[in-house]
């Protein structure tokens, strides 16, 4: 994966958002009937409300976002600042630089959005995202995100368990794996007009991994709809795996019998495996996976922490891999 030199200005300690600030903001959203807010957005929204202006479509929140079910995930983790999670991104469809996705995705059109479901399942076809994910089902999960590049964040996602969604398509007994694809639209996604990756971005899971209760399909974060740079309008979140498995802006789900090809393992199979479980004991050929920089952290305070097996979700997922050699199946 491309490792770019990190500027000291990328993240600074002063950007840290305390959990209480975020939770207060969530409270505020409930009071105002569920209006989308980014950190620092309160002033703008308040002004808009006072003037009686309609909010722009991009910030209009679906009403039920004010009633997200809370879960116990991530209670002990300090949530990363909204500004860091939305400006330090990997989304190569919009460029390889960490700030490119934010800078280049503002015009990306995410409504209407359909997902094509194919393969070994009883119910296949083209479905509206709104029909797949009902607003009343949304819950919040605070998950650690560990990138294979050895940095990490803690993000409060809003969405629904992947298993709940997949089961509705009634996968058959031949569905041993599930494959996902990102939108291919070079007109909108400037990164796809160049080389680098073999577009569209592809990912996959073994069906039991996909059905594990930790696997999550997110449509929001920090209480609001997903910003485009974070994979709007719908993306995977697989917190025990390296971040590249958490494919963004999904347009296709295919149930298949054999292990599907996936973008990064096609590009560099000796560096990125199909499983890509977070594992401090299996180094990347070019760098250690024993530690990670928990963002934000600058030059003076790199905020390096030890990486945990399965990113600390061993209890939830280790049984999926019992008897497997994790050094070979990296
Ligand atoms: N379609 C697509 N999905 C993607 C990527 C990408 O380049 N394209 N990057 C992956 C990587 S490497 C990481 S670390 C996460 C980053 O998610 P975030 O930007 O929301 O933190 O998205 C993953 N999903
Ligand atoms: Mo990543």
UniProtKB/TrEMBL annotation:
Oxidoreductase molybdopterin-binding domain sequence ranges: 109-264
Keywords for the protein's UniProt record, in alphabetical order: Metal-binding, Molybdenum, Oxidoreductase, Signal
EC number(s) from the headed UniProt entry: 1.8.5.-
SUPFAM superfamilies: Oxidoreductase molybdopterin-binding domain
Molecular functions per Gene Ontology: metal ion binding; molybdopterin cofactor binding; oxidoreductase activity, acting on a sulfur group of donors, quinone or similar compound as acceptor
Coiled-coil region(s): none
A matching Pfam family: Oxidored_molyb
Reactions this protein catalyses: L-methionyl-[protein] + a quinone + H2O = L-methionyl-(S)-S-oxide-[protein] + a quinol; L-methionyl-[protein] + a quinone + H2O = L-methionyl-(R)-S-oxide-[protein] + a quinol
Cofactor binding note from Swiss-Prot or TrEMBL: Binds 1 Mo-molybdopterin (Mo-MPT) cofactor per subunit.
Description of how the protein assembles with itself and partners: Heterodimer of a catalytic subunit (MsrP) and a heme-binding subunit (MsrQ).
Function: Part of the MsrPQ system that repairs oxidized periplasmic proteins containing methionine sulfoxide residues (Met-O), using respiratory chain electrons. Thus protects these proteins from oxidative-stress damage caused by reactive species of oxygen and chlorine generated by the host defense mechanisms. MsrPQ is essential for the maintenance of envelope integrity under bleach stress, rescuing a wide series of structurally unrelated periplasmic proteins from methionine oxidation.
PANTHER family linked to this entry: PROTEIN-METHIONINE-SULFOXIDE REDUCTASE (PTHR43032), PROTEIN-METHIONINE-SULFOXIDE REDUCTASE CATALYTIC SUBUNIT MSRP (PTHR43032:SF3)
Name of the protein: Protein-methionine-sulfoxide reductase catalytic subunit MsrP
Organism: Marinomonas polaris DSM 16579
Encoding gene (name): msrP
């Amino acid at each position: 994966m491309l490792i770019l030199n990190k500027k000291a200005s990328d993240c600074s300690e002063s950007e840290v958002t305390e959990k209480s600030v975020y939770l207060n903001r969530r409270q505020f959203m409930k009071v105002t009937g569920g209006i989308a807010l980014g950190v620092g957005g309160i002033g703008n929204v308040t002004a808009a409300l006072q003037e009686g202006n309609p909010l722009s479509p991009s910030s209009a929140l679906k009403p039920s976002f004010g009633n997200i079910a809370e879960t116990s995930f991530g209670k002990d983790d300090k949530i990363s600042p909204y500004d860091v999670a939305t400006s330090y991104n990997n989304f190569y469809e919009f460029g390889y630089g960490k700030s490119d996705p934010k800078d280049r995705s503002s015009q990306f059109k995410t409504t209407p959005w359909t997902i094509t479901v194919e393969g070994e399942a009883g119910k296949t076809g083209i479905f509206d995202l709104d029909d797949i994910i009902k607003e009343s089902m949304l819950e919040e999960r605070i998950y650690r995100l560990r990138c294979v590049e050895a940095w990490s964040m803690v993000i409060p996602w809003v969405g629904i368990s992947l298993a709940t969604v997949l089961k509705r398509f009634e996968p058959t007994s031949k569905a041993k794996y599930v494959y996902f694809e990102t939108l291919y639209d070079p007109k909108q996604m400037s990164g796809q007009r160049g080389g680098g990756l073999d577009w569209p971005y592809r990912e996959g899971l073994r069906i039991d991994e996909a059905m594990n209760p930790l696997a999550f399909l997110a449509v929001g974060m920090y209480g609001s709809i997903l910003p485009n740079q974070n994979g709007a309008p719908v993306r995977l979140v697989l917190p025990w795996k390296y971040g590249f498995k958490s494919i963004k802006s999904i347009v296709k789900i295919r149930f298949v019998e054999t292990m599907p090809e996936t973008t990064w393992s096609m590009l560099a199979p000796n560096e990125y495996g199909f499983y890509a479980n977070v594992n401090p004991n299996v180094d990347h050929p070019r760098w250690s996976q024993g530690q990670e920089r928990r963002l934000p952290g600058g030059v003076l305070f790199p905020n390096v922490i030890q990486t945990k097996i399965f990113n600390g979700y061993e209890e939830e997922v280790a049984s999926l891999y019992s008897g497997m050699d994790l050094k070979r199946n990296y």
